[in-house]
Amino acid sequence: MKAYLFLPLLLVTMLSVSCTKTTNEYVVPNQTILFDLGADQWSFDANTNSYFAPISIPEIDVDVRDIDGVLVYISNPDGTVYEAIPNVYNDISYTYVYEEGQLTLEAQGVGSVGAGNPPRLLVKVVIVRSDF
Question: Is residue 52 a part of any domain in this protein?
Answer without folding.
Answer: yes
